[in-house]
Amino acid sequence: MISGRRLLRAPARGPLARLGRINWLYVLLICLLGGVGYAALYSAGGGAPQPYALPQTIRFGVGVLMMLTLAMLPPRLLMRLAWPLYGLSLVLLGLVLHVGHVGKGAERWIVIGGVQLQPSEFAKIALVLVLAAYFHRIRWERLANPLFLLPPAAMVLLPVALVLKEPNLGTGAITGLVGLSLFAAAGMRLWQMVALALPLPVLARLAYAHLHDYQRARITTFLHPEQDHLGAGYNIIQSKIALGSGGLWGQGYLHGTQGQLNFLPEKQTDFIFTMIAEEFGLVGGLSVIGLLVLLVLGGMLMALRARSQFGRLLALGIAMNFFLYCAVNLSMVMGVIPVGGVPLPLVSYGSSAMLTVMFGFGLLLSVYVHRDERLEARDPDGL
Amino acid sequence: MKRPESPQRAVFTRRALVMMAGQAGVLGVLAERLYSLQVKEGPKYAKMAMANRISTRQLAPARGRIVDRTGATLAGNKVNWRALLLPEQTSDLGLTLRRFSAIMPLDARDRARIERDMHRQRRFIPVVLHDFLTYDDMARIAVAAPDLPGVLIDVGTTRLYPQGGLLAHVVGYVAPAGEDDLAGNPLLALPGMRVGRAGLEAWFDTALQGHAGSVRMEVNSVGRVLGETDRQEGVPGAELQLALDLDLQQAVQRHLDGQSASAVVMDCRNGEVLAMVSNPSFDPSLFDSGVSAAQWQAWSVDPRTPLLNKAAAGLYPPGSTFKPAVALSALAAGTLSPHDRINCPGYLDVGGSRFHCWRKGGHGSLDLHGGIKNSCDVFFYEVARRTGMEAIADHAHQLGLGTAIDIELPHAREGLIPTPAWRRRHGHHWNGGDTIVSGIGQGYIQVTPLQLATYASRLASGRAVQPHLARSLGGAATAGRTPEHWPPLGIPDAQLGAIRAGMFAVVNDPGGTAPKARLPLGGVQMAGKTGSAQVRRVSRAAREGGHFDSSKLPWEYRPHALFIAFAPYDAPQYAVSVVIEHGNAAAEVAAPVARDIMMDTLRRDPANRATAPGQRVAAAG
């Protein structure tokens, strides 16, 4: 046991050695997705690097550097940063409610130092960190006692409530689901899950009653998009038309009629996938989905590979967050769930989402780089 | 030696694997969904995509011109640059309208109209925001175009009546389509499309409208046109050429100026209407943009009825102009021969009532010629008494009086020749006296000036000519341009000749009732007949008091002054009817007007100046 630990720890010393332990295949996949984003934004810009593709690529470069830097940080440090980051995210979420900028009827972002920041994105990463840190220290056996689930439940509900108040339904739901997945992965008992699921219908009813008008409109137009061609149903219909007109092989790069003629709304952000699938057809669409599957499952495999519970939960949370992002965005553009302002990570235009996703991948890579390190359940320095 | 896994890690691994399966499953379902959208339902969406980017717009065809016999424009089209709004291409109508009105102010009436059009029209039919844009207006709108989705500038036409009120009653007018029109043809809602509401515009509406064309354009989502893919020109409306002579119409109008009156000039050989004037008139272009309530009020209280086409829809007792018809019916019935003499002592007693002649002392013994020349009432009382109302009515109808005639005007009236049967239908008894007063064109008889002109034409030509306004439509000649087209009336020439001679004497013989109608032209002479139509029964006391003078009555109680005429007497070409409301003395008022009109007609000789159908004379378009 001891020899095994020494043996495993040995190669992780020194920055260069750690750089060598980075999962470069995964980095390559991330860069591939970034490349897809560049190509799509080039097309969305009407066949030009401006106004979308070039700024996005610069941000992507910054993001890759940040990701690789984060990959070097030892999980011990990350764990120590969990609480301060979580606290900061709550402060920012509170702040955005008061001084946030209004976009589409909701307060969602604040500007710090000229950079638009969506605290809700950041809050998800902070939540994953803090939950991973919590569950790392609670022995599995003790989780049978529901009392030990109450603190993490509060950790989840606090940011979720603030995000919903913005109001951002999509991100709020994703945050909640990410938290739930960590509960499950950490060892929440099945009966606890059942007990949690039972009051859900009542909660859903309550939630609908508190939805904003535009959110309810989204749900109704999702159910009956044909009732309002030019109103809220427009987005869904136009997206489906654009997808359908792509066919098997697509209309050709830069030749998607719906996207290029601006019928497709927000083609550079929420509906970037539609644009890709219109121009490259089913073949292109499935390729992108395939890439996403590799990134999600790759992240999950890295989680399985980690030796510390903190690392495992952190990696799983990041991968789950990325997966939910993709799944919600794809479902939305294909008219499976109501439209909800969730971008396709790394592909859609936008700084905040891009940087937080890269931040998450940095943490994920850090878990992988330090996959064989074991963390003490009780941090000697205390917390 | 492998370290045994902690239960924590075992649970994590199990659950992570379940989650991975779930993640793969969800993305797999989404991939399947993508497949069904793109491949299985692909063609359906591809079609919708086509519809998305191809916008079809209907093009309003130019309405057919209406020209006179020489090609002068009576109703044309004026180029009209206008701002339209395509409701289906703007997401926020209220916002777009607010922005537009910041550039081009819209008054309350415009707004109400836009609101109404928005509600009743389909979303792909544009609504007119503003007509008659100047170059500056267009520039300002073009600059603001990105903020005005769905607003487009378009060139169309509006109806132009260069002659103003001169032909308002004949040509009629157009107005935007109403609900009823739209139910039949929704394309009438296209900007620039108009529906004929009166006159020839209404009668020939379908032919004048033409057929809408369409243009298919590739547009982007805010409606910006990126290019035309396909264009189908509409078929412009047919050009309608009238027999009417604009010059003559103007001359006739001048002769009626200041009167509440109407006059019709016809080519008595083929029935072409050369002039048809109803005075006063109105500005037909007012109907295009909607008539104000004040204007309506002014028109409806005006006792001179400017909106009424008096020539075709004004009903008047024919008075003594009816006498030739009575005479012809008596000759046909055999109750009178041209040389029978009837004594006029100044009155006729029938059934206990005394009927007076207009000449207090009477005319003495008269034959038919003298009866017409002197317009002796007693002579025609007696003729009517002998002939009976049924025979008179039959002949009056044959001559075009009190019966429907084929004029191309939607509101032409039939008038009435009363008969005992008609009286009975209305629950009244026909008195012998009713026949007597009908003999001099009074009582219940009602005719229109157009019928009087037709009547004069038939007396002159002996043929059953029908008055008609059109000469050609869309380049094809309309029927009835030659005398041979019209069948003879079947009245023996000797009988017609006797009547014509009497009418000649009215104008030209010493002692005739209308010496002022004599033409001051050497060889060309006119025949005619006066008529005074009482609008109020003259009381016996007034008549016997001997100081009755209708010119002292208030205007609206004075008798109407009528005159019918044809010329030249020996080879009739033109027939004229004149009705001057409350003109009082036919011989003094109507006869000189008829003479002047006939002079102008003969001088211009419109029958011999016309362009071939469809041929354009160099005329202002």
Automatic annotation (TrEMBL), chain A:
This is Peptidoglycan glycosyltransferase MrdB. GO terms for cellular component: cell division site; plasma membrane. Peptidoglycan polymerase that is essential for cell wall elongation. GO terms for biological process: cell division; cell wall organization; peptidoglycan biosynthetic process; regulation of cell shape. It is an enzyme of class 2 (transferase). It comes from Lichenicoccus roseus. InterPro entries: FtsW/RodA, RodA/MrdB. HAMAP family: PGT_RodA. Keywords: Cell inner membrane, Cell membrane, Cell shape, Cell wall biogenesis/degradation, Glycosyltransferase, Membrane, Peptidoglycan synthesis, Transferase, Transmembrane, Transmembrane helix. GO terms for molecular function: lipid-linked peptidoglycan transporter activity; peptidoglycan glycosyltransferase activity. It catalyses: [GlcNAc-(1->4)-Mur2Ac(oyl-L-Ala-gamma-D-Glu-L-Lys-D-Ala-D-Ala)](n)-di-trans,octa-cis-undecaprenyl diphosphate + beta-D-GlcNAc-(1->4)-Mur2Ac(oyl-L-Ala-gamma-D-Glu-L-Lys-D-Ala-D-Ala)-di-trans,octa-cis-undecaprenyl diphosphate = [GlcNAc-(1->4)-Mur2Ac(oyl-L-Ala-gamma-D-Glu-L-Lys-D-Ala-D-Ala)](n+1)-di-trans,octa-cis-undecaprenyl diphosphate + di-trans,octa-cis-undecaprenyl diphosphate + H(+). The keyword Glycosyltransferase applies. It holds the Pfam family FTSW_RODA_SPOVE. The chain crosses the membrane at residues 21-41, 53-73, 85-103, 147-164, 170-186, 280-301, 313-337, 349-369. Belongs to the SEDS family. MrdB/RodA subfamily. It is a multi-pass membrane protein.
TrEMBL record, chain B:
InterPro entries: Beta-lactam/transpept, Beta-lactam/transpept-like, PBP_dimer, PBP_dimer_sf, PCN-bd_Tpept, Penicillin-binding_protein_2. Keywords: Carboxypeptidase, Cell inner membrane, Cell membrane, Cell shape, Cell wall biogenesis/degradation, Hydrolase, Membrane, Peptidoglycan synthesis, Protease, Transmembrane, Transmembrane helix. GO terms for biological process: cell wall organization; peptidoglycan biosynthetic process; proteolysis; regulation of cell shape. It is a single-pass membrane protein. Its main location: membrane. It is an enzyme of class 3 (hydrolase). GO terms for molecular function: penicillin binding; peptidoglycan L,D-transpeptidase activity; serine-type D-Ala-D-Ala carboxypeptidase activity. It is found in: Cell membrane; Membrane. Residues 262-598 form the Penicillin-binding protein transpeptidase domain. NCBIfam families: pbp2_mrdA. This is Penicillin-binding protein 2. The lineage of its organism: Bacteria, Pseudomonadati, Pseudomonadota, Alphaproteobacteria, Acetobacterales. The gene is mrdA.
